[in-house]
Amino acid sequence: MFIPLIFYFFATATAWVYPNPQLEALDRLRWDQTGFNALGISIFVGPCNFFFVDTNATGRSDAADWIRTAYHDMATHNANDGTGGLDASIRFGEEQVRSENVGDGFNNTLSILGIGASRYVSLADTIAVGAIMAFENCGGPEIPFRGGRVDADGPNTPGVPEPQDSLDSHIAAFARQGFTQTEMISLVACGHSFGGVQHALFPDVVPDLNDPTNRQSVQHFDSTFTNFDNKVASEYIAGTTQNPLVVGLNDTKNSDKRIFGSDGNATMLSFANSPQLFATTCSSLIARMVDTVPNGVQLTEVVTPLSVKPANLQLILNGDNMVITADVRFWNMTFDANRVILMLWDDHAGGTHNTTLAARRAGTSSAINDRYSALWYGLDNFAFDGLAGIKTMRFTVNGELEDQDGLGFVVDDSVIFSASSCLFSPHPLAGRLDVAVRNGVNPSRIFLENVKIDSSGHPVITETDIPPPAQPIAANAVYSIWSHNVTDNNLYRIVAEVDGVNISTWANPAGVFSSCPS
Ligand code: HEM
Ligand SMILES: *[C@@H]1O[C@H](CO)[C@@H](O)[C@H](O)[C@H]1NC(C)=O
Ligand SMILES: *[C@@H]1O[C@H](CO)[C@@H](O)[C@H](O)[C@H]1NC(C)=O
Ligand SMILES: *[C@@H]1O[C@H](CO)[C@@H](O)[C@H](O)[C@H]1NC(C)=O
Ligand SMILES: *[C@@H]1O[C@H](CO)[C@@H](O)[C@H](O)[C@H]1NC(C)=O
Ligand SMILES: *[C@@H]1O[C@H](CO)[C@@H](O)[C@H](O)[C@H]1NC(C)=O
Ligand SMILES: *[C@@H]1O[C@H](CO)[C@@H](O)[C@H](O)[C@H]1NC(C)=O
Ligand SMILES: *[C@@H]1O[C@H](CO)[C@@H](O)[C@H](O)[C@H]1NC(C)=O
Ligand SMILES: *[C@@H]1O[C@H](CO)[C@@H](O)[C@H](O)[C@H]1NC(C)=O
């Protein structure tokens, strides 16, 4: 019997708990695919025949590039010594010049997926989510996604199978990667449901097709090469396949033929007979493929969409006021003009307050090709008593409480950005970034984090310490100020180590500071 994946998925996974900056970022990457707060990655696989390098051409697609990239990055894994795996080592030129990694598909992929990399999301995580998005948005099954991959510092040992290698060598290569022979057959079929082989890269496999729109003469693995379905299996079994690695000109390079037939066609026959079996098999194998990481890398739990997700929360101390800006996503919610959503919060003095969230951020945010909907509500620069501060948020939706099963949504206001930050000079830029520290909180260290995405898409984090003030500078009755001069308008996160825990919050970019009093 076919158990719908969505049911299975949500029945077995528990949601993450807010606050958690890493899971907030991973949830955004994986679920906020379109609409408000979306990173915009999914538009590159919607429609699924889209190929951003040459939008007029047929034959190639971003979806196929993303899936092949994830496999080639993972395929260096050695299950015996724990080295290699999905770690974005494919970004290094030293890996790309190898014959096992021919083509421009890897750089195409990284130049898009790098959009998703950030302080809490490695380039390797984006490669994993890219493959998952390609499957999910293009007719494939839903695939559980975990984050926490670590980008490699250099190239890995070679290890991607090539078409001219023997069947024994392919079986050995997949065993080294952690997959059995049956899993090898399945994984190749899953991947080769997309894309094909280029003439220029494999002239003895694919002839020049002389097709003015299929400019790179790509001969496809099945007749529906921009979509996931079981045609790669059904056409193979029916003997009608045009798969160039089955019926290619050079039989030595017909690796799919050898692999698919290696168990007497049993696995391919089962896929040809059951689209559902193929989909569930690919869901679990693609998940294992992207979760194949070097030893020592600790992946997160499966990232499920938080049903009520605060995001982009920023607190600013302004005199005796605190000013909050936040977005709140309500999953699986559709538009209703009459709905009332309140944010309730507890302060440090035992008081409870509430305000209405603006529905003006409402707008459908559909993830995975309209499979899900979500609505965003928000608060912009809402001011409240900054001395009393804020400890916990809760929400009510038409009177119904949303409080994370009693935990509430904890907000830490112990170290926040201060509106007393100011500009000495706009050109050349010179400003003072003020951090407000709640009295009684004793950070062992406060530093600014800045993240730059390098040319390969890999995020590089720099830290700049803010020294403690020589003598306390009071901001108001309950906060004092730590200051740091900046000469750029980079976006920083303020991080404070307090009692062995790092608390972090956004600093405003220096570009919006007011002038320093002279
Ligand atoms: C023995 C194992 C494998 C061999 C020998 C092999 C070989 C190839 C070759 C020669 C190409 C053509 C590349 C080009 O011309 O651009 C290709 C494309 C592709 N492969 Fe594989 N492959 C293997 C396994 C896999 C696996 C496990 C996956 C993913 C799960 C995968 C996904 C893809 C995709 C999506 C493409 C299409 C790329 C495009 O159209 O741009 N392959 N493969
Ligand atoms: C794409 O095709 C359109 C219409 O055929 C043409 O006007 C345009 O110049 C083409 N663009 C590229 C990049 O080839
Ligand atoms: C991809 O980018 C890397 C790093 O910039 C570069 O070394 C490599 O030559 C590029 N590969 C291709 C095929 O263009
Ligand atoms: C077929 O591929 C093999 C292995 O790469 C190669 O040695 C041989 O020259 C190729 N044959 C032709 C006709 O290109
Ligand atoms: C597997 O199926 C293909 C395509 O129908 C066929 O050519 C081949 O002989 C079969 N192999 C075996 C071992 O049955
Ligand atoms: C989404 O909301 C609808 C209507 O409230 C409900 O019937 C359905 O079970 C929800 N789906 C999920 C996945 O939570
Ligand atoms: C919200 O605050 C008002 C006072 O400002 C209070 O009357 C009302 O009961 C509060 N609502 C909730 C749900 O706590
Ligand atoms: C920051 O810059 C101002 C203006 O140039 C200067 O007066 C002040 O001493 C600087 N502070 C630090 C800590 O360098
Ligand atoms: C806090 O951040 C610093 C700098 O990134 C790191 O070295 C330290 O391990 C972190 N501490 C905790 C408890 O995560």
TrEMBL record:
Q: Which GO terms describe its molecular function?
A: heme binding; metal ion binding; peroxidase activity
Please state what class of enzyme this protein is.
Answer: oxidoreductase
Instruction: Report the SUPFAM superfamilies cross-referenced here.
Output: Heme-dependent peroxidases
Which residues constitute the signal peptide according to the record? 1-15
Enzyme Commission number(s) from the entry: 1.11.1.-
Gene3D superfamilies in the record: 1.10.520.10, Peroxidase, domain 2
Which keywords fit this entry according to its UniProt record? Heme, Iron, Metal-binding, Oxidoreductase, Peroxidase, Signal
Q: Name one GO biological process term.
A: response to reactive oxygen species
User: Which Pfam families would you find in this protein's record?
Assistant: peroxidase (PF00141)
Q: Which InterPro entries match?
A: Ccp1-like, Haem_peroxidase, Haem_peroxidase_sf, Peroxidase_I
Q: Which PROSITE patterns match?
A: PEROXIDASE_4
Question: Start and end of every Plant heme peroxidase family profile domain?
Answer: 44-230
Q: What does this gene product do? A: Destroys radicals which are normally produced within the cells and which are toxic to biological systems.
Please state which protein family the record places this protein in: Belongs to the peroxidase family. Cytochrome c peroxidase subfamily.
Q: What is this protein called?
A: Peroxidase
Taxonomic source organism: Mycena albidolilacea
Q: What is the lineage of its organism?
A: Eukaryota, Fungi, Dikarya, Basidiomycota, Agaricomycotina
